[in-house]
Inverse folding.
């Protein structure tokens, strides 16, 4: 014998389902891609991802937040990104390049890492490349080439099927 729902619970379930259905059909101007970088000095290198998304008319947002200096901010952003409509995250970082991995640890969204060179890079960005490409099991991060933010934009568009 199936358990019966009381009338109030049944009405709440119907109302919640109806609201979810209506929201699914709404067109929203929320960004679909989040572009993150560890510091303001990364902006010139990461502009190529933004330009690629603009050319494809994919709404996106750009944020500067450091996995080392602002770990709580990064975790909060990653945890709430999907709820705000973000579907793909692009993270550019140099040196230890922790940002993509930290974001992937706090989100189920696809994360694309862009290893960036800097004046302190080892072997032209090899340090950042290895930091992003060598993620532990269960924390996947896609990795494009060093300073290849444009390819990150292209990959994000492909993930979105746009």
């Amino acid at each position: 014998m199936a358990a019966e729902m009381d009338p109030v619970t049944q009405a709440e379930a119907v109302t919640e389902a109806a609201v979810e259905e209506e929201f699914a059909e709404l067109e929203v101007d929320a960004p679909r891609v989040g572009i993150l970088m560890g510091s303001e000095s990364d902006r010139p290198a990461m502009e190529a991802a933004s330009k690629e998304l603009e050319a494809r008319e994919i709404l996106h947002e750009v944020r500067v937040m450091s996995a080392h200096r602002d770990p709580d901010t990064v975790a909060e952003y990653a945890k709430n990104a999907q709820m705000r409509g973000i579907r793909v995250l692009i993270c550019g970082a140099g040196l230890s390049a922790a940002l993509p991995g930290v974001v992937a640890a706090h989100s189920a969204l696809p994360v694309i890492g862009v290893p960036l060179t800097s004046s302190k890079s080892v072997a032209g960005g090899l340090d950042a490349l290895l930091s992003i490409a060598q993620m532990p099991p269960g924390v996947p991060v896609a990795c494009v080439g060093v300073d290849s933010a444009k390819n990150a934009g292209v990959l994000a568009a492909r993930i979105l099927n746009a």
The chain is about 45% helix and 15% strand. The chain has one domain: 30-160. The helical segments are 7-25, 43-55, 71-81, 99-105, 126-133, 149-160.
